[in-house]
Amino acid sequence: MPCSARKEALHATGVVLTASVATFAAAVAITMSGPAFAAAPDYRFEVEQVAPAGPGKSDVTVRLVRAEDGTLVTGAALSANAAGDTEAERTGYRLFRVNTAAAGPQTLQVFAKVPGPTRIERTFNSSIKATLERTVRGEDKAVSGTVVFNAQ
Length: 152
Known about the structure:
It is a single chain. By secondary structure, the protein is an alpha+beta fold. The chain folds into 2 domains: 3-36; 41-151. The protein has 1 helix and 9 strands, in the order H-E-E-E-E-E-E-E-E-E. It has one helix at 3-32; strands at 43-52, 57-66, 77-80, 83-88, 93-99, 104-114, 118-125, 130-137, 141-151. The strands form 3 sheets. The chain has a 4-stranded antiparallel beta sheet with strand order 1-2-5-4, with no helix packed on it. Strands 3-6-9 form a 3-stranded antiparallel beta sheet, with no helix packed on it.
């Protein structure tokens, strides 16, 4: 192979390699900055119902929904910092008894522990010629937010 042909081949290889490295670097930059492009949180708290619970108290029913489609998160454990007695009203809803100083708009800080996604792992054990399955749950996610309600 003549010397000039070798130089052209090496140059073409270098151009392809440089383009590949640049493409890889751009992909890594986009992947690493993914959370910065997140527009809204994954979840939101909603007030379902507010009822009077005696003088200076209101019963506030709160639920946690997915922000993207509004579906109820049923496995979450909800809690609030300023609520007295609480109880699970029905699946996905939580009733908080809140002390309120006066009627009108009130703010309640709410927290939730959302269970991680589950997946099934299958492994084949050749010594006993059987497929074994186990359910693996992902890491829980902590969510916090506020709800505004009118005290009764």
